[in-house]
Amino acid sequence: MSSTAVTAKTLPEWKRLRPARLLYRALGLLLAVGFVGWSLDVLRIDVDRLPGLFGRIADVLSRRYWPPDLAHVMKPDFISAIIDTFQMSYVATVVGLMLAVPLSWFASVNMTPSKRWLYPVCRLVVMACRSVHEMIWTIVLVAVVGFGMLPGTLAMTLFCIGFGGKLMAEAIEAIRKGPVEAIRATGAGHLQTFVFAVLPQVRVAWAGIAIYTWDVVFRASTVVGFFGAGGMGHFLRESVQKVESRQVSAIILTIVVIVIVAELLSAWARARIARAVA
């Protein structure tokens, strides 16, 4: 095949822009802009107050939140709460992903052993865990099991099941069918097909999903204590209730720094995985 034929085959087909299509695009843009204006009116958002917003924020931060009370976040109790937050996010991620692995297998439409029973049930479980916000899970579980690290860990575990399970199921649904059909041709069962044909194709994607899930879970774990689940959020709640603004700013800065460090660690781990695969 000549290079000219290859180039002609890869280039997109040129189509004349029809007036009707241009009209539809203009109407769609007008509808989108009109909906934004209607929403601003219904929500009673005073756009005239926006230009001075940053100035007012800077004034409030300088008067009430600055300088941050760094001595408060250096106390042994707060440092212990930071360690508890790490432990809560780690345990929730490990347990949640261990439960998400079989759920993602059963909830993938192309590899589920039973499209009639397992697929809808497991898909419903993943959707239920993902549809409820982790803060709401925390509030419900605190009411059920009481205050402490347990409701926070359980809430983060449910979040991992929904978040990681969905991404893992989508990774399974994107695999190549050739290895699966080859393994099945040898008489392999569902488990053997999953282990020898599916896992080799998704293990790299799943490793990245696991790291990203822990990253998201750790961010959420820093504030679930605000609702009674322990960790750094517990100290944040106490400072807010006491109107100790400088302590609040110190805790928020600490959370920002820790999240940045966690983001750098997760990015480094993802880069190592990418280099190992390449």
Q: CATH topology, which one?
A: MetI-like fold
Low-pLDDT residue intervals, each spanning 5 or more residues:
none
Q: Which range best describes the helical content: under 10%, 10-25%, 25-40%, 40-55%, 55-70% or over 70%?
A: over 70%
| Overall average pLDDT | 79
Which value, in Å, is the CA radius of gyration? 25 Å
Write down how many β-strands occur, each being a DSSP E stretch of 2 or more residues.
Answer: 0
Number of helices: 12
* CATH architecture grouping: Orthogonal Bundle
Q: Rough shape?
A: globular
Provide the succession of SSEs. HHHHHHHHHHHH
Number of separate structural domains: 1
Class derived from helix and strand content = mainly alpha
Q: Between the first and last Cα atoms, what is the distance in angstroms?
A: 31 Å
By CATH, the superfamily comes out as MetI-like
Strand proportion: under 5%
Give a brief outline of the structure.
The chain has 12 helices and no strands.
What are the salient characteristics of this protein?
MetI-like fold, mainly alpha, about 280 residues, globular
Molecular structure report:
There is one protein chain. The chain has 278 residues and is mostly helical. It has a single domain, classed as MetI-like (MetI-like fold). Helix content is 77%, strand content 0%. The chain has 12 helices and no strands. The chain has helices at 3-10, 19-42, 53-65, 70-73, 76-106, 118-131, 134-145, 149-173, 177-185, 190-221, 232-241, 245-277. Helix 5 packs parallel to helix 8 (149-173). It is globular, with a radius of gyration of 25 Å. The mean pLDDT is 79.
